[in-house]
Amino acid sequence: MSSQYDSFANTYGRAVALDVRRYVDYFSLTRALGDVGDKAVLDVGCGTGVITRILKQRGARRGVGLDLSEGMLDAARGEEVRSPLGVEYVRRDIADAGALGPFDLVTACYVLPHASSPDQLAAMCRGIHEALAPGGRFVAIHPNDAFAVNDPAFYSAYGLRASVDGRLDDAAPMKVTVTTVDAELTISTHYWTRSGYEAALRRAGFREIRWRSPEVAPEGIEALGEAFWSNYLARPYAMLFECTKEPAQR
Ligand SMILES: C[S@@+](CC[C@H](N)C(=O)[O-])C[C@H]1O[C@@H](n2cnc3c(N)ncnc32)[C@H](O)[C@@H]1O
User: Is residue 81 pLDDT above 90, yes or no?
Assistant: First the structure.
C-alpha cells in the first residue's frame, strides 16, 4: 500500500529540523518520557526515525521504529546506515504492533491523527496497548484540539499552517502545511478532540490518561528569545498525553 509520505520522505527530512520541532516537540516529549535508559522503546509512525534515534541516543536498550510508508522507512534506514545506532525499523500497521512487544515505552509523534474514524483510532491504541509490557507507558504528541484553528496564519512564524475542513468534530479532515527554508509540504490528516482520544484509549484498555502542555527548551529561548515563543505558548499547536498499561495482577 502506498502512502502520501512515500512521495515526500526527502522533504520531510528537512521538516523534522524546524525550530518548533526541536525546541518544543522533541523537548516536551523527552521531558514527558523521563529516563529511557535500559528500556525497550517502540516509536510508532516513526517516519524518518527522528524520535526513534533520539530515544536510542538517550540510552534505550532496544529502539524499534514502526511505520507503514516504505519511503519514510527507506530514509530512516539510510540514516541508520550513515550513522549506526542499532535502531530496528519494521514496516507494519500500528494496529498490528502487539506481536513486536513487549516494550516498556511506546511513543507516537503526530501519528494518531492519521486515524480517519473512531474505530481506526481505537485499533491503533489497542495495538499500542498490546505492544506494552504490564506497567509500560505510552506517550503521544499531536495537534492540540484548541489550536488557533480560525487563524491559519497564527503559526506561520513557526513554519506551520493548519486548517480543518468543516466542523471541529472527531476525524474531520485536516491539512497541515510545513514550510522549511527551501521546501513546503502539505500533509492530509484528521482533527481529534481530547475526548475522542480518551474514548479510543479507554476502548483499548488504558485507564488513567494525563494531559501535558508543551514546553520550550531553554536553548530555544536562548536562541530565539522569549517573545518568539510567547505567542506559541499562548495557544500551543501541540499537546501531549501519557497513559500507563495496568500492572500485572498478582
Ligand atoms: C507526521 S508523520 C510523523 C513521523 C515522526 N513520528 C515524526 O514525528 O517526525 C506520520 C507518520 O505516521 C505513519 N503512519 C500513519 N498511519 C500509520 C499506521 N496506521 N501504521 C503505521 N504508520 C502509520 C506515516 O507513514 C508517517 O510516517
Answer: yes
Ligand 1 cavity residues, CB under 6 Å: 3, 5, 16, 45-47, 50-51, 66-69, 72, 93-94, 109-111, 114, 124, 187
Mean pLDDT of 162-175: 93
238 Cα: distance to centroid of ligand 1 (angstroms): 16
* Percent of the chain whose predicted confidence (pLDDT) is above 90: 84
Closest ligand 1 atom, residue 69 Cα = 25
- Do residues 98 and 203 lie in contact, with contact meaning Cβ atoms separated by under 8 Å? no
Distances (CA, A) of 90 to 53, 63, 94, 98: 14, 11, 11, 13
How many CA atoms lie less than 13 Å away from 148 in the CB half-sphere? 14
What pLDDT score was predicted for residue 163? 92
pLDDT for the residue 169: 95
Domains and CATH numbers, the chain: 4-145+192-244 (3.40.50.150)
Return the C-alpha cell found at 95.
Answer: 494496529
Residue listed under C-alpha cell 526527502: 10
For the chain, the straight-line distance linking the first and the last C-alpha, in angstroms and rounded, comes to 43
The pLDDT of residue 9 is above 90: no
